[in-house]
Design brief:
alpha/beta, Rossmann fold, 8-stranded mixed sheet, 15% strand, globular
Length: 233
């Protein structure tokens, strides 16, 4: 049985990722800061709940200890928890905006990955999936053919660029693990609150995450992809 943790798994793409992985036979732990919502989502999906606030050292350490006690290992870590902080443009961006977004999207990812590394090392085929964005790709945001090039999001984009660099460094530094970044696509979730034409469903968005969460020992590492294939860094 594959033991999988999805951070920020009580809603949006995290919840849909958890649902699809449960259907594939994974034992899925939904990491959620909100205990009531996390338990409700886990109960609804046939998953398990793990209280986990990615911005809090004590919370993350306690979650890792709980999983160690209950399962003894972790096979797949999906670093999905993230915040958007709205369409803050270049003139509006402040240090407070940066601090809020980086604390969840970047520092939180490092905090969780570090805490669960001992459990991943016990796995025969450890996998880490970092949920990123095309808005964090230098190549994508400078390509006029991509819709991301029309947005100015210095806070969110720089955070996701940092996630991509962390993916490269973890992949190089942890060669026994498969570590990849994924762009799930512009999906209708409350991360940004948008929906309509050109915005895919959460089910479609989760597909690329699930694909990387289910690779084997011979799978790729140090990559950045979406549903269509490789993306430029």
């Amino acid at each position: 049985m594959t033991i999988t943790l999805v951070t920020g798994g009580n809603k949006g793409l995290g919840r849909e990722t958890a649902r699809q992985l449960v259907e594939l036979g994974h034992t899925v732990y939904i990491g959620s800061r909100d205990a009531a919502r996390g338990r409700a989502a886990a109960d609804d999906l046939g998953a398990r709940f793990l209280q986990l606030d990615v911005t809090d050292d004590t919370s993350v350490a306690a979650a890792a200890e709980q999983l160690r006690h209950q399962e003894g290992r972790l096979d797949v870590l999906v670093n999905n928890a993230g915040v958007f902080e709205g369409m803050v443009n270049a003139e509006q961006a402040t240090a407070d905006h940066m601090r809020t977004v980086f604390d969840v999207n970047v520092i939180g990812l490092v905090r969780v990955t570090h805490a669960f590394l001992p459990l991943l090392r016990v796995s025969d085929s450890p996998v880490v999936v970092n949920v990123s964005s095309g808005l964090g790709s230098f190549g994508v945001v400078q390509d006029p053919g991509r819709h991301e090039s029309h947005f100015v999001t210095p806070v969110y984009s720089s955070a996701k660029a940092a996630v991509n660099m962390l993916t490269v460094q973890y992949a190089k530094g942890l060669p026994a693990m498969r570590v990849n970044s994924v762009e799930p696509g512009f999906s209708a979730t409350d991360l940004h609150g948008l929906s309509g034409d050109g915005i895919q469903s959460p089910e479609e968005g989760a597909e690329s995450i699930v694909t990387l969460a289910t690779i084997g020992q011979d799978g790729p590492t140090g990559t950045f992809t979406d549903r269509g294939g490789p993306l430029p860094w």
